[in-house]
Specification:
Helices cover about 35% and strands about 20% of the residues. By secondary structure, it is of the alpha+beta class. The strands form two sheets. The protein has a three-stranded antiparallel sheet. Strands 5-4-6 form a three-stranded mixed sheet, with no helix packed on it.
């Protein structure tokens, strides 16, 4: 299992340190959404000796290399997503949970007119809900 995560880093031209490999095991174990705080807590729970700075640096590195998608909920809350396929999200503000919505489950009746120098690359919708 470790060799798989070492290869991910090597393919990105990044040194696969023990801490990075340990974090990759937590991050890429399944398709999931998580915050940096969630990952820090999970690392602590698994008794991994990884500093907060290493967690943030590794997340930034994986984000920059296109291995993680980021969803900015607001200025103070950022989720990381291991599902890199086109899809939308439902954010529950009461529970602070993020759920995937399949891309084909949302249809736009009309999109805004763009300047002639631009073209749509992709669309991503974030729907915020709260418990009744």
């Amino acid at each position: 299992m470790e060799a798989k995560y070492e290869k991910i880093y090597r393919d990105l031209n990044v040194t696969p340190t023990k801490q990075r490999v340990d974090l990759a095991h937590l991050i890429f174990a399944k398709k999931q959404h998580f915050t940096a705080a969630d990952l820090i807590n999970l690392a602590d729970k698994n008794k991994l000796n990884i500093s907060m700075a290493t967690v943030y640096n590794t997340l930034s590195l994986l984000e920059d290399k296109g291995m993680l998608k980021t969803i900015n909920i607001d200025n103070e809350l950022k989720f990381y997503d291991t599902n890199l396929e086109d899809h939308h999200h439902l954010y529950n503000t009461t529970m602070s949970t993020l759920t995937d919505i399949a891309h084909n489950r949302v249809t736009f009746a009309e999109l805004p007119e763009l300047p002639k120098t631009l073209e749509i690359e992709s669309t991503e919708l974030l729907i915020k809900v709260k418990n009744k």
